[in-house]
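Morning F.,

Quick status update on the modeling queue. The single chain you submitted on Monday has been processed. Sequence for confirmation:
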Amino acid sequence: MPRRSAAHQQTISDKTLILDNGGYTIKAGFTVEGSGPSECHIIPNCLARERDKKVWVGREIETIRDFGEVVFRRPVEKGYLVGWEAEKAIWDSTFLDPKSKLNV
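Structure tokens below.
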């Protein structure tokens, strides 16, 4: 197998993502080698939809002011992940959004 040049070698990050994907909340944070865990982020593990079809995902739910006509959907039921599409949307907004503090 040919050797890769220095430009092609992958660097290993010194940060490790710690994740607890619970049925009600996602608890996540980074740990740095040689020190303890950093700040833990608690994100609602659900989607919310209003009557006018506006959808909030994960952390956006904290901005809702009136919960009167909001319908919640949780991707985890009785400990089993049953809504893969909903969970993927929550993970994408939590870990892949450039504005997120947990951007990987």
